[in-house]
Amino acid sequence: MGGGATGVKVLVTGGGGFLGGKIAAMLHQRGDDVTALGRNRYPALEREGIKTTQADVRDAQAIQRACEGMDVVFHTAAVAGIWGKRDTYYQINTVGTRNVLAACLACGVGKLIFTSSPSVAIGGGAIRGVDESIAYPKRYLTHYSETKAIAEREVLEANGDRLLTVALRPHLIWGPGDPHLMPRVVDRARRKKLVRVGDGSNLVDITYIDNAARAHLQAADALASGSPCAGRAYFITNGEPLRLWEWFARVLEAVGAPPVTRSMSYPTAYRIGAALEWTFRLLGIRREPLMTRFLAGQLGLPHYFDILAARRDFGYTVEVSVEQGTGRLVEWLLEGSGQDVRPAEPR
């Protein structure tokens, strides 16, 4: 499977999502025969000439039918988040991945590229420049992290003569089309509900969407029997850690959203998050708390990673810098994100 390949049949699970859709588009643009799998229809992909199929990863038989005749599978489908029932995360992230693995083996798929998360290596506390030698933590603060970690381990253990596997861990994916991170930040700022956690000095890695997607293609192309990336996991970022709250402030100013004026220390945010989690569970409240222990750490602690292994083992390249990507993000937020992010009228 190489750049400009033709006749290579590829399935992208979660192909209607932010990352999955970008991977499907890049594969299609270079000439691969791409099918995007998701629970809904995606007319935008179909208009681009990308085939789509509807299925839920929890449906083992449907997933096996989708994998028939495929050479490569990119498994991006997952339920992400910091709150909710464990069974939901487990059934989609863990059992769903088992279904994909079983289908790949049953159908003779040659390669499986699994989208994991850096959170599988984060149990709590600061992360400063760690590489893939970091051990899985003994406990997790979210069901998402725990269930993705189980899935990642099983994917890597499945690597062998019948199926080659690799797992990528992109951190905080952002850019035009982002359905979560920056639209939520802007929305909270406009509602004056955005509170800085920590003193703003924490360095955090982020990953522009095009770089995250291209990393998947590069890993797939390099994946071969005996290749360094077979059976391994890799952190993926833009490779330029930044002060997260300074970046937020820059984007908020560019779209005319009010600046963040309130702050709290990380220990305070952690305690509030713990109290809210306990209260919400006790009362059976299903909506996501405004603060959790995991969110406090993401917003207030350093989280950056060493991406040397990805550069060395499969030629990962950062083609869109944070500076370039931020300009594209701001333009998208102003022109058509579906959020009310137009500059505020002068008062």
Please describe the structure with a list of short key phrases separated by commas or semicolons.
347 residues, alpha/beta, Rossmann fold, 7-stranded parallel beta sheet, 15 strands, globular, disordered C terminus
What is the CATH superfamily of the domain at 9-171 and 205-240 and 303-319? NAD(P)-binding Rossmann-like Domain
The major beta sheet can be summarized as: 7 strands, parallel
Note the total helix count. 12
Distance between the termini: 57 Å
CATH third-level topology of the domain at 9-171 and 205-240 and 303-319: Rossmann fold
Strand order of the largest sheet: 3-2-1-4-5-7-12
SSE string, helices as H and strands as E: EHEHEHEHEEHEEHEEEHEEHEHHEHH
> What helical percentage do the residues reach?
40-55%
Structural class: alpha/beta
The fraction of residues assigned to DSSP E strands is: 15-25%
pLDDT < 50 stretches: 338-347
Q: Over all CA atoms, what is the radius of gyration?
A: 20 Å
- What CATH first level of the domain at 9-171 and 205-240 and 303-319 would be assigned? Alpha Beta
Second rung of CATH, namely the architecture of the domain at 9-171 and 205-240 and 303-319: 3-Layer(aba) Sandwich
In round numbers, the mean pLDDT is 93
